[in-house]
Amino acid sequence: PDSYCVMGNPVAHSRSPWIHARFAALTDQALQYDRCLAPLDGFATALAGFAAAGGQGCNITVPFKLEAAQAAARQSPRVALAGAANTLARQSDGSWYADNTDGLGLVADITRNAGVALAGKDILLIGAGGAAAGVLGPLLEQSPRRIVVCNRTAAKAEALVAQHAELAARQNVVLQAQAQQALDGDFDVVINGTAASLQGAGVPVPATVLRPGSLAYDMMYGPAAAAFLDWAALHGATGRDGLGMLVEQAAESFALWRGVRPPSALVLAELRALLA
Ligand code: ATR
């Protein structure tokens, strides 16, 4: 069967093999999907080895998303904008095509699974690292009213906003960078794309950004999302973790590779039950 993998470091706890195995079973696709631990300084070599062994596609996780974008002969417009790729697909000439499905996965989970439309809404995106960069383009494409990006290191938020200014103008979205201490107003949707919880730090914005009924979304799941979800509940917001984003980004990758859309909502429900 065609061979796929998730490449990262670490990769032992990745749920991607389980998710893609379920997608394959439910769509009758014969494929193999493994974990591939690449050395921190050996991504290019690991990728070349996977290609030489006949690998057809991979998901890329921390810390190789920037290198994956570089390694590809062709990039989707999303990758060009974000500078990061989470999906590689083999082209007929043997070279790699890079895409980034993280933002599509986030948007699909918010709009379809959580049932919250983003058009016309006010969105706060916290963080300006790789995770935040990967989702800003697809968020803009939903034509919200306004997106504010805020980050501990303000210059990175400003750079991310500058990079997306043209797309924002085309979509008619007000796109701004704001300092954490100077956040102006409240938001319909607050998205945490920082790694603050992994450092044991608190939620890096004041609770004034929430209004009753706001959606407070953490791109992480499991224990790493707990502090943010507690904070959301304490302030009357609806919390949601990133498990649905994980499943939906996988579904977008699977559709790119196989030309078949897997039943992602079903697999998300199964995964939630498994982890409960
Ligand atoms: P990732 O690929 O997960 O986005 P990253 O590129 O290292 O990883 O970005 C991590 C993000 O979490 C950044 O926005 C970072 O803020 P800085 O740009 O100021 O470094 C944010 N972050 C990490 N630790 C944090 C903390 N303790 N408080 C607030 N923000 C934090």
TrEMBL record:
Annotated GO CC locations: cytosol
SDH C-terminal domain span: 242-272
Residues forming coiled coils: none
Keyword Oxidoreductase: yes
Protein family membership: Belongs to the shikimate dehydrogenase family.
Subunit structure: Homodimer.
UniProt-recorded name of the protein: Shikimate dehydrogenase (NADP(+))
Lineage: Bacteria, Pseudomonadati, Pseudomonadota, Betaproteobacteria, Burkholderiales
This protein's encoding gene: aroE
